[in-house]
Amino acid sequence: MTGTLVLAGTPIGDVKDAPPRLVEELAGADLIAAEDTRRLKRLTQALDVQPTGRVVSYFEGNEAARTPELVEALLAGSRVLLVTDAGMPSVSDPGYRLVAAAVEKDVRVTAVPGPSAVLTALALSGLPVDRFCFEGFLPRKAGERLSRLREVAQERRTLVYFEAPHRLDDTLAAMAEVFGAERRAAVCRELTKTYEEVKRGGLGELAAWAAEGVRGEITVVVEGAPDKGAEEVDAAELVRRVRVREEAGERRKEAIAAVAAEAGLPKREVFDAVVAAKNAGA
Asked: Residue range 262-266: average pLDDT?
């Protein structure tokens, strides 16, 4: 009989947010894979729990090499607990590779739900929460960051990002450039911790605020693009949007369909614009 892989959410700040089941799993797991074993030790001490299973590190640098070892333990019947530094494994943290490998071997995968910076920031932002998408971390390079933002410039769902404090001002300035300085957003800092702060305002205003320096763990929530119905977009802009999507890896057919949907136009109209530009050598 195969074992079970347990993905356990850990506190994003206040250790008192740890669910009771987390304590039970820490005490009873045969093997604990932790993103940072030192932080795991601090967590277990704070929760007054003593793990009885073996503890190994499982982080970005050794994730690929250690996954087969953990799968082997699962296939041998072990209960393997995966914890990251904060929040839920796999969400911008190690875990996806192990989950995929376990699923491929028909190993049971379950979870201990816990605190989430994404949902906490979204709920506190004051922005629409009925539809949203999580975009994780943006690229560090300015050009790649702008390209990624342009891909979602017309996205009508609320957007959620993680960002490092030393890059926050540049990221907010790039968002203001692509989305518009007046687009509403919220910067959520140090959630559930002593110095928790939620700064709300337009992207331009927030970029100016962040230029003075911001510390802590950061989650940024950005209002989606307004629904303007069918846009008045010229052919050159339609072609530019298709090219942006193609450069990001989309096939031309899918890029044309997406741009047409964004602009509220028939796909044929966007296709004709792309073909005309190609024939003109543009």
From this structure: 77
Q: Is the dihedral angle over the CA atoms 88, 165, 139, 184 positive or is it negative?
A: positive
pLDDT at res. 264? 73
For residue 1, the model assigns a pLDDT of 85
d(CA 83, CA 6): 9
The DSSP 8-state label assigned to residue 87 in this structure reads: B
pTM of the model: 0.77
User: Strand ranges (DSSP E) for the chain?
Assistant: 4-8, 31-34, 54-57, 79-83, 108-112, 132-137, 158-163, 184-189, 197-202, 218-222
Q: pLDDT (tens digit, 9 = 90+) per residue, 214-257?
A: 999 999 999 999 876 555 678 888 999 999 999 888 899 989 98
What is the rounded distance in angstroms from the CA atom of residue 169 to the CA atom of residue 248?
A: 24
Q: Exposed, middle or buried: residue 98 (CB in 10 Å: 0-12, 13-18, 19+)?
A: buried
User: CA nearest 25: which of 99, 100, 114?
Assistant: 114
Q: Are 93 and 33 in contact (CB under 8 A)?
A: no
Extract the tokens encoding 192.
Answer: 């559930």
Reported as a single tens digit per residue, the pLDDT across 111-144 is 999 999 999 999 999 999 999 999 999 999 999 9
Separation CA 25–CA 29 (nearest Å): 6
What's the residue count for the chain?
Answer: 282
Q: How many CA atoms lie within 13 A of 281 on its CB side?
A: 0
236, amino acid identity:
A
Residue 19: left (phi > 0), alpha (psi -120 to 50), or beta?
beta
